[in-house]
Amino acid sequence: MGSSGKSIFNTLIALVILPLACCNVQPPIVNPGILSQAKSLGECQACKLFVDSFKKGLERTVRGKYEGGDAAWEEEKLKLSYKRSEMRLIDIQEGICKEGKHSVQCHHMAEKAEEFIEAWWAQDPDESTDLYNYICIDKMQVCCPKHHFGKDCTPCPGDHERLCSGNGKCRGDGTRKGNGTCLCDPGYTGGDCDHCMTGYYLSYKDDTKMLCSPCHVSCMGGCRAGSQKDCVACKAGFAFDSDEGCLDINECDDVNKCTKNQFCMNSIGSFTCMACDKSCDTCHGDGPDMCRKCAKGYSKKGEFCIADREDEDQSEKLTTTRYMTYVGLLIATGILLPRSTSLGSLVGAMVLSYILGAEYYCMINGHTGLVDLKNFDLAQLFHT
Ligand SMILES: *[C@@H]1O[C@H](CO)[C@@H](O)[C@H](O)[C@H]1NC(C)=O
């Protein structure tokens, strides 16, 4: 194939993709999770992150930088001098706090801890030192030992094996913050987290453990046990049945729950009225294919209600784009045909099948095809 043939061939491929894109354009969907920022850490957690990262750095550099020295004795010597060198500390610090979403806070902590780390490094330390204790608890004073809290690392009150009855934690545990009172897990209440919250019932209890479990969603004001039959009373949106307990009311059974341009969606304990698609007068769901009756100015085409005017406008635009493409293709064929009959007729056949394919695609997708071509005389093109 000659270079002009090749470029025409490429043009053809590009042109095949264009009308398909015109028939089906959708806006991009943005993931909202990407936009929200990471929650900030407490100082003690940031310190722990820094220490963990530093330990990884120690491991990363433990084999030294000068692997593969000329002789074994030489390598051994270099390794020893690197092990305690300023250079290794720099290598560690350069790679620190690189991972994770809290790297900014980690770096900040690393800066603050720098003098303590340098002092520790200078005294030829044992690398198995508990750096967390040394840095975060003793030197930086941002953490406390386990089950201690507050400025002075006061022990949490109560039995350290079973703090807050095993159903909560001591406020500030392990940090220099908090006041040591119990922060109960969901469902528990009381100074020692030894009572069930309203909406929960005692589902288990022995000498060392108690468990509270949530009442059934249909319950109001508490329950004896977990089923809908055990409610003290039923929540709004539920009706009491002497056999079944609290049962969901299907509000949508009442056809007058929502207004004319809405449809009703039942949910457990409630319902929602949602607006019909603008193409519907009445509907039984969302979208232009769920109309019971089309809105004024729209008419039914297959499953859909389509705007009478808008439909013509849009399809006219699309149709024009498509026909421009065909004209381009035909001109390309016209250029090629006199130069090489075999290539020309091959491209001609491709153009023809492409046009048929695109027309068919657009026809089954509801756009008007060649049959509606009024102001465009293809035959004229061939004569000129
Ligand atoms: C302890 O702190 C919590 C939460 O900050 C607070 O609600 C509570 O009143 C405090 N308790 C005491 C005894 O200071």
Plain-language structure description:
- The structure is a single chain.
- This protein has helices at 3-23, 32-35, 43-60, 72-83, 86-94, 103-122, 131-139, 308-336, 341-364, 378-383, and strands at 148-149, 154-155, 168-170, 182-184, 188-189, 195-196, 200-205, 210-214, 219-223, 231-234, 238-241, 245-248, 262-267, 270-275, 280-283, 291-294, 298-301, 304-307.
- Helix 1 runs parallel beside helix 9 (341-364), helix 3 packs across helix 6 (103-122) and helix 8 runs antiparallel to helix 9 (341-364).
- The strands form nine sheets. It has a two-stranded antiparallel sheet. The chain has a two-stranded antiparallel sheet with strand order 3-4. A two-stranded antiparallel sheet has the order 5-6.
- It is built from ten helices and 18 strands.
- It is α+β, with helices and mostly antiparallel strands.
- Among the domains are: 41-67 and 74-143, no CATH class; 258-296, no CATH class; 308-383.
- 40% of the residues lie in helices and 18% in strands.
- Strand 13 (262-267) and strand 14 form a beta hairpin.
- 21% of the residues are buried.
- It starts with a helix and ends with a helix.
- It binds 2-acetamido-2-deoxy-beta-D-glucopyranose (NAG).
- 2-acetamido-2-deoxy-beta-D-glucopyranose is lined by residues 171, 179, 181.
- Residues 171, 179, 181 line the site of 2-acetamido-2-deoxy-beta-D-glucopyranose.
* Low-confidence regions: 15-23, 371-377
Q: In oligomeric terms, what are we looking at? A: single chain
N-to-C series of helices and strands: HHHHHHHEEEEEEEEEEEEEEEEEEHHH
What is the percentage of strand-forming residues?
A: 15-25%
User: Within the largest sheet, what's the order of strands?
Assistant: 1-2
Please state the structural category.
alpha+beta
| Biggest pleated-sheet summary | 2 strands, antiparallel
Instruction: Tell me the helix content.
Output: 25-40%
Instruction: Give the C-alpha Rg.
Output: 37 Å
Number of DSSP strands? 18
Bound molecules: 2-acetamido-2-deoxy-beta-D-glucopyranose
Mean pLDDT score? 84
Global geometry: flat
**How far do the termini sit from each other?**
27 Å
Count of helical regions: 10
